[in-house]
Amino acid sequence: MLIGAGVVACRSAPPSDVGASTVTALASASPSSAGVQVLDGSLPTADPALPPVSLRIPAIRLTATVAAVGVDAATGDFDVPPSVDRVGWYRFGASLSDKSGSIVVAGHVDSAAQGRGAFFRLGSLSPGDKVTLRSAGGDAQDFQVVGREVYAKTKIPLAKYFARDGALRLTLITCGGPFDAKTRHYRDNIVVTATPIASKR
Amino acid sequence: MRLTHFRRTAAATAAAALVFGGLSALTATPALAASSQVSVVHGIPDTPVDVYVNGKKTIPDFQPGKVAGPLTLPAGSYDLALTKPGAALGDAILKVDNAKVPGGANISLVAHLTTAGKPTITAFANDVSKVAAGQARLIVRHTAAAPAVDIRAGGKPVFQGLTNPKEAKADLPAGTVNADVVLAGSSTVVLGPKDLDLKEGTATIVYAIGSADDKTLGLVAQTITGLHSAPGGVPSGSGGLAATGVGGWWYGLVAVGLLLLLLGGATRLRRRS
Q1: What pTM value is reported for the model?
Q2: How would DSSP label each residue in chain A?
């Protein structure tokens, strides 16, 4: 029984942060420009965003459908897809066609009704693990994990992870840490950051 | 598009067009916010110009319908002039001396026609406060030689009785709005309908320019990006299956286990003795 308890304690130790400084550097990278820019004052048209439609992370044997989502109108929170085997791409942020900013994909770690979610094992990813996003046309973009951070939800610097500027990066978010059985909420968010590597066509 | 929201905020935001002089009063800023972002909008039809700032040609051959900038200008007074392209500064079409630019503001200088059809320059202070996640800001400015107008979205008036040189604005859910401009209180369309794609986290400023009498009415748009906010949070678990930090009951179990071991050991010791 003692050994059993010990194993659980080890397995459920929160993942430690790795690559935090790399993640911060990515957020502040920006190109500079000079001179008076003259733009055509035509009415704005819809952006040609390239939404990811599937996500693959071999290290945790995950292949998940990616849905384009926005903000829950009632709460103002990220509108994570209710079905736990799907993950949500933040459609207001960067897409696969962008050259800068954060492509944000969030998914459930689990749910009371549906059990384990797509991102159940997100916290076990380590630097070097590969993540692949695929667009509707079938083009794949590979990313490599560079950081994994854990924040209390009250302290997470969301602006950094939802930034539209800085180097192009992929930000994967789920829940973690201790669970409050009364409110049915986790205390923490787990954030995994990955940077693009040579694309495979 | 939620029109009810649209109408409510439209009424609440009285136009804040500012002619020079009024601007500094609005943006009383601390000394350290030294510079302002200044965009220049050309809304006078058929009249390309060179734009001079403090006697220096800053935007050459500036075409109607274009938006230049933003320039970063330290707070202070500026002499502005518009000339025909290549013409001498002395032959300016329009001059504004000692235009006050406050610090820390985002300003659009708009060369346009007055209601009576005379060229003028109006300075507008742009609302660059953050918009909520999922929202976009729409600002409409009447800078045309035309009477009061209503702006309609989906056929319903949302900004009413807008006159030159005033603005109206609202924060709306990001997305496409089909909008047109009608004479105030009527259904006589003077501009549009046009689809406006309001991108999340941006301010889209639409200027009505030109002259109704000369049939040169048109629209010019300016977009200010980077006003987005992050969502309030990322709630992504309700099961507790992945909980870390060992729950209290495990400690209880361990304590019971230890107790049993101790008792067992004690019993054995007693037997031996």
Answers
A1: 0.82
A2: -HHHHHHHHHHTSPPPPBSHHHHHHHHH------S--EEE-PPP-------EEEEEEGGGTEEEEEEEE-B-TTT-SB---SSTTEEEEETTS--TT-SBSEEEEEE-SEETTTEE-TTTTGGG--TT-EEEEEETTS-EEEEEEEEEEEEETTT--HHHHT-SSSB-EEEEEEEEEEEETTTTEEEEEEEEEEEEEEEE-
